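Field reference: "sequence" (input) and "structure" (output). Example, RNA-directed DNA polymerase, eukaryota:
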Amino acid sequence: MDIWVEDQPLCSRFNRLYMLESEQNCKVRDRWNNGGWVWKWRRDVRGGIEQSQLNSLLILLANVELQNGQDKARWTLDDQGIFSVAGTRSHIDEMRLLDQDFVTRWCPFVPRKVNIFVWRVMLDRLPTLYNLSRRGLEIEAISCPCCGTGMETISHVLFTCNLAKEVWSKIVRWCQVHMPEVGSFAEWVSWCTQVPNVNNS
């Protein structure tokens, strides 16, 4: 009944064979003898789904190597089977952190908190209503409280909300540049790399 091959108990995956097993609480070693599997069925395996499950079971167990000794836990996220905090953290980072098409660069001409804010925007780590609800917090509504026309995501708060568009229109007018309508941080960065320097002389 334990999980010892792949990611689910064999009694669940091969339920028809499990019903035929005469000793359902037996151990793995009870069915292994002299390099081969020994089954104890209540009756012979019939054709159809029972034979199909038996064939699949034998294929699955063909690559299993049993060794003498006590059972021990093996950490499957490590090639050596050994648990480590650093390895687990690395695996979590690979699963959760977003891949970016550009390198984070810290600008020395703005306050550090601005650099940190932009970095958190890039990783989608700002506490918007959408992000909070996605992390399990009970939120009554995730719509934007300013305009009510969309979910309060980072892209909406910074670019597509009516209030954000109004702020951007004032900024580009003051900077004397033309900014097309952008809908995400990546689009904004792409536009910034193409904007020529403004000559105020």
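The chain has nine helices and two strands.
Residues 10-61 form one domain.
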